[in-house]
User: Which sequence fits this backbone?
């Protein structure tokens, strides 16, 4: 067991600029007390990167240490350029107890690639805040995987920046925890400018939010051999808002789309003046959403397709 009564230092602190290559924390890893469990901040120091960094069978809890003036995240991982192949398996992390009630963070990570959490649980000893953050990630991270993971006892929000918000974190306000709900908080000021595609249970999803100037268009991926539906909406300007839903099957000829329903100013064809069109782009195998409404509009594009 590693134990500390320090209110300023964590259990394990890695010096800024240290490279962590093929490092494993395994066995019976009981970390108790301290201002957090693991701190590695090389964000401003060149050279502090990692590959193959693994935490297994780690448990961190406060050990009754409370009243910390400046509580840190329980786990902080901030490499300078990147850390690849990072995994947490069979881990349990509580939340640092500040001297004042308020939101805290369990896991803070940036520039992490191939990041995996397996059979990992985040928990808050006290229910004094329902906005504690389980995972604080952003678009500098990628290939993030959560398998059989939960967060409960008031640790329920996931921050992802412009990273795809695909998680299955439980949140509960009661004890024993009732796992099953998901709470996500995505930063709307730092959203992705390109679409994101993911698949759940054999059904693919693509989504994009974009502002189109008059006469411009946005691409929508076309998935060969798949039944695809496209849902489109746009806001009001000097004229009315609108939208439509279309379906494309493997038998649908090129340059055509079947319009299921929609407003008069949204068509499943090359648009005319004062229309928005969704039509086949022969050049690159995609579908296009084109704005000919004469002014900029905000568009929400969502596509669902069979794998």
Assistant:
């Amino acid at each position: 067991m590693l134990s500390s009564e320090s209110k300023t230092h964590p259990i394990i602190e890695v010096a800024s600029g240290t490279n962590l290559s093929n490092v494993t924390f395994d066995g019976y890893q009981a970390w108790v007390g301290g201002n957090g469990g693991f701190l590695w901040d090389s964000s401003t120091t060149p050279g502090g990167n990692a590959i193959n960094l693994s935490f297994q069978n780690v448990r961190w809890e406060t050990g009754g240490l409370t009243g910390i003036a400046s509580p840190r995240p329980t786990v902080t991982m901030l490499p300078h350029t990147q850390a690849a192949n990072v995994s947490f398996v069979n881990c349990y992390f509580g939340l640092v107890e500040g001297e004042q009630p308020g939101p805290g963070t369990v896991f803070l990570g940036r520039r992490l690639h191939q990041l995996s959490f397996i059979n990992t649980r985040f928990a808050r000893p006290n229910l004094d805040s329902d906005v504690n953050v389980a995972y604080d990630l952003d678009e500098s991270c990628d290939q993030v995987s959560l398998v059989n993971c939960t967060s409960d006892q008031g640790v329920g929000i996931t921050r992802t920046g412009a990273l795809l918000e695909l998680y299955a974190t439980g949140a509960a306000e009661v004890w024993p925890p009732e796992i099953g709900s998901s709470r996500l908080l995505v930063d709307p000021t730092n959203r992705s400018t390109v679409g994101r595609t993911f698949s759940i249970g054999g059904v693919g999803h693509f989504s994009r939010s974009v502002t189109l100037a008059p006469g411009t268009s946005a691409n929508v991926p076309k998935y060969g051999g798949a039944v695809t539906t496209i849902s489109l909406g746009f806001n009001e300007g000097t004229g009315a808002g609108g939208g439509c839903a279309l379906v494309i099957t493997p038998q649908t000829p090129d340059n055509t789309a079947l319009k299921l329903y929609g407003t008069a100013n949204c068509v499943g064809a090359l648009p005319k003046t004062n229309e928005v069109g969704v039509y086949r782009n022969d050049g690159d195998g995609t579908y296009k959403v084109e704005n000919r409404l004469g002014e900029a509009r905000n568009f929400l594009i969502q596509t669902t397709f069979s794998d």
Remarks:
- Residues 46 and 163 are 25 Å apart (CA to CA).
- The two ends are 48 Å apart (CA to CA).
- Confidence is low (pLDDT under 50) at residues 164-194.
